[in-house]
Design brief:
Structural class: alpha/beta
Number of strands: 8
Shape: globular
CATH architecture of one domain: 3-Layer(aba) Sandwich
Helix content: 25-40%
Distance between the termini: 57 Å
Strand content: 15-25%
Strand order of the largest sheet: 4-3-5
Length: 209
Amino acid sequence: MKDRLLRKRRPLITSPLEWQMTAAPVPHPVIPVLAERGGTQLQTPRPTLVVDTREQNPFNFSRFQGWFAGVEKKALKLGDYSIAGLEDICVVERKDLSDLVHSCTADRIAFVKRLKLMAPYPHRLLVVTSTLSQFRYSTTCGWMLHTNVDPNRTMQFLVATLAGLQVPFICSETHELGEELVGSYLYQVHLYHWLESHDYGRFLSDNDL
């Protein structure tokens, strides 16, 4: 009897190998972050997000209506996305996988020049709508092999961009996740700038970020 009970006993925590991702992603927050002082929420204005008119297959920010006062399309001096009024200090450049590889090879001179222009911006970000593994491992990059592009070359280009030019990059698994990452980043750039400009200091709440 005791042996049968031991055989039937199930572990309290299942193995991570048995875990499965849900079909739907976790819904995005109503507001990315809140600013507080002394435990009281500050009434901060919503920014206007700017999308460059030349951006191909642009991010769609319509599901983040509570984050922004609006979305404006106009020709930006640099980059694909910014915040109205902060275009001279905030720039976001977006690349999908094929565009990134082209920019690192055939269009390398022009792309490096653009990255060098981004470097002095206080807020700069390169967003790649692809996972690192998609262009790092040749087994998943058949089209890159077909074009004789070494996946290592693209990977090391991104690292050099980070180490040499100090332009940070972030990879997004999907186009939709990229929209949320960029939207949240621009919202928070605006929020920190507003807090500092109104003598609240550069932090969200007491003893926090």
